[in-house]
Write a structure and sequence with these properties.
It is built from 10 helices and no strands. By secondary structure, it is an all-alpha fold. The protein has a domain of 134 residues: Tetracycline Repressor, domain 2 (Orthogonal Bundle). Helix 1 packs across helix 4, helix 7 crosses helix 8 and helix 8 crosses helix 9. The radius of gyration is 18 Å and the shape is elongated.
């Protein structure tokens, strides 16, 4: 990795929690310099503008969450156990530093839906990928006779994502995890009901 690439990566990693907590509009150049300890010139010597930093940071935040969940899913063999990773991770999100400022998909989607087309596209692609991943786990479970054959993969995926993101939003707004835990307990029961 070149010095320039290392500096870019440093900027992304240091500003990732700032963008995730404050959003694109709420993150100032001062926030970026404070988080990195770098000058404006150093930041803009590595990125064309704040938009470019924000897009790179979204990718980083999203990939961090995805890699974390994927590793836990792949550690399980049974499709139901794999799906149970979701309520387990999100129920305990405060344990994970990269989730403490919120879900990057939710945070980005709610802010960028009308204000930042590039971020909105990234969030939409991330949601579509997540939905396909859940659907594929369900299809795998049906094929292996671990999940009931009449289970609708798309329906389960949409409900799973909606429960997680809706409950996460409530937890972030209220500062309490009560609703999140209720929703994740319900999601766990729903997933267990899919068992063959």
């Amino acid at each position: 990795m070149s010095k320039s690439e290392r500096t870019k990566q440093f900027i992304i990693e240091k500003t990732a929690p700032v963008f995730n907590a404050k959003g694109f509009a709420g993150t100032s150049l001062n926030d970026l310099t404070n988080a990195t300890g770098l000058t404006k010139g150093s930041i803009y010597g590595n990125f064309e503008n704040k938009d470019e930093v924000a897009l790179a940071v979204f990718d980083y935040n999203y990939q961090t969450v995805t890699a974390f969940i994927k590793a836990r899913i792949l550690a399980k063999d049974n499709a139901v156990d794999r799906l149970l990773v979701y309520p387990d991770v999100y129920r305990n999100y405060l344990k994970y530093p990269f989730l403490q400022t919120g879900c990057p998909i939710l945070n980005t989607a709610t802010e960028a839906d009308d204000t930042h087309p590039g971020l909105r596209e990234r969030a939409a692609a991330a949601l579509a990928f997540w939905k396909r991943a859940v659907e594929n786990q369900i299809k795998r479970g049906i094929a292996r006779q671990e999940i009931k054959a009449d289970t609708n993969p798309a329906e389960v995926a949409v409900i799973l994502i909606s429960l997680i993101e809706g409950a996460f939003m409530q937890a972030k707004v209220t500062g309490k995890t009560t609703e999140l835990k209720i929703a994740m307990n319900y999601l766990e029961k729903m997933i267990l009901s899919l068992k063959q």
